[in-house]
Description:
15 helices; five-stranded parallel beta sheet; Aldehyde Dehydrogenase, Chain A, domain 2; alpha/beta; about 450 residues; 2 domains; binds nicotinamide-adenine-dinucleotide; about 20% strand; globular
Amino acid sequence: MLVLSSPFTGQPDRETVHGNAADVASAVASARQALSGWAQSSSAERTKVLTDLADAIAARSEQFALAITAEVGTPEKIAVAVQVGLPVRVLRGFAEDVEQAMAAEIIGNSTVTHRPLGVVAAITPWNYPLHQAMAKIGAALAAGCTIVLKPSELVPHTNAIMMDALAEAVPTGVVNVVPGDAGTGAALVAHDGVDAVSFTGSVAGGRAVGEAAARALKPCFLELGGKSVGVILADADLDKALKSIVNGGLLNSGQTCNALTRILVSSAQLPEVKAKLADLVERMTSRLGPLISQSQFDRVQGFIQRAADEASLTCLAGGTGRPEGVTKGHFARPTAFVATDPAVELVLEEVFGPVLVLQAYDTDEQLIELANGTGYGIAAAIWGEDQQRVAAIAGQLRAGQIDINGGAFNPRAPFGGFGLSGSSREMGIYGIREFQRPVSVQV
Ligand code: NAD
């Protein structure tokens, strides 16, 4: 059992229990038993279950939003729109993609069908707890797989509401939930009855899960961290671009895997951008929620302190400690630095907190080098009016999602990264295909 504290007060306010090996074994047995029935389900049945699940979540929207705000610290409006609204849209998207996912293809004298991988172990983090679970559950259901979910141990109330919605909408045994910590997750990955693993979380967790899955020769899909970049070209609408990047970078207090936490601007614009960025970031102070836990707060403080001690970085806004006047809770100050050396921790490592770093480029070649200069590659944004130049830059960025001039998130488009961000894809037909394998029948 683990005692958790409120992000808002720092005081203990809830407990979480950890499933043991026997709980894992019974969840896997239940998923195995349900597998043959669900694998043979029709597209109409899968579409109905996905739609029912979306409806069951939408009906609990307020309950989910309150729990996620209390457990993660996400401001309530964003909890409703993003934490709950997004997974509902994602599930409805999967429902629309079921037919394509189940259609046979003809290649010469072969008929190719897409068969479910089997029992999927899904392991998810705490930052968008409902969305991350539904991205995996929705895709696996559409593919004809059954699932054992090991959600994050930090959000027990959210998990309980999720289990209630699943029990209402999904046939018995098709989705099973085992609450628990990394040990519970490791037991699940190692279980013989699990055919494939899908993990979202940190690079360290992904490495451990990936190694264990590789030893057992199980397919393993990883969605890991990021250090995503917002690129501003000289002809862009500067105010709009900066506002959008800062909002994206500080969403959920920076605890977002595809947060735009690096900003690239031309050297000529650097002085103007420094001033505008400092002002925007300072003004975000009252709009951000707290970080999830004391350890996350301490981790972020460590990054800010080491950045302040680094000679090639200059602090533009924020700094260590809580915002002025705030005396309790895990509230960190929104913070921005400008960097002259691309080889420093703050430029290379994911903070997972409200900390942005500004860099300058002189040529497009240098811009590409800086943009691709971390081991991560999950998301990027480009702002500029010259469409040819924007397209040429987009074509050279190593990121799975590239938004141009504020292009909206598309819950049916493939989502995922390169390198340290992991290389699997979630959402829509690409997400479903991860949980299927093609079988060729020749006549
Ligand atoms: P984490 O790796 O500590 O934990 C993630 C999940 O994995 C939890 O459920 C945890 O209990 C479990 N886990 C950890 N180690 C394990 C192991 N060895 N074996 C089995 N299970 C294990 O990550 P976190 O702190 O919960 O989440 C934050 C991280 O997640 C950040 O790095 C963030 O960028 C990343 N993330 C990525 C995406 C994406 O889609 N790429 C989305 C959200 C978050």
